[in-house]
Amino acid sequence: MIDKSSPIPVYYQLKNDLISKISEGVWKPGECIASERELCEVYGVSRMTIRQAIGELVQEGVLLRIKGKGTYVCEQTLKQQDMMSFTEIIKQMGKELRSEVVEFCKINTPEHLADIFSLDELYKIKRKRIVDDECVALETVYIPVDYCGYIDMEMLNGSLFKILEGFGYTVDYSQSSIASVIMDDELKNIFSVDKQVPMLKIISKTYDHNNKMIFLEEAIYRSDKFILQVNISRREGKIR
Prior knowledge:
alpha+beta, Arc Repressor Mutant, subunit A, Chorismate lyase, 2 domains, about 35% strand
């Protein structure tokens, strides 16, 4: 299983093999994996190598160390990296996604959005995003009616990115603010839970390649199910 003559570091080979075993169901979410001593014997590597591989998987949210008990497999979470639509994330993970439209209408631009949108009418689209029959997100999106023309309920079953591309827009980047949210009774009902779970609120302004803001999204995610991975870089005097 481990090729010590390979240019690929041994710990990295080990890490990938552990991931494969988890994917194959050798260790399921919530189960304890083999001990460090057992892994040393199975793979024929040092305990330091085992700890390096496991340490990276802990940092990535794949494994969880519990002092005095062992290392456990975490429940798989949805991870957003770079500019990906929620639909793309779920497709990449091989999971089943469906959208339940909670509200869809045309509205006059609300006062709190007047500084963002100068146009009179907006589409307001509120959707529950349900992954493998479990609601993990509530999205509320505002799009100027003049940008899109006609949108119907059937179109809202898929990606909004794709809808906008159909109207000639290319999504380029977004600017987001992130905050924690305390779950109230309304959110418990929306997410169909009977106890407090951690929530994350992300407000994003999404722009096309001409720096034109094409929609505003206010989304609430279950942060025990969703990870937002932020990559920050400095580019020739321009930071996004």
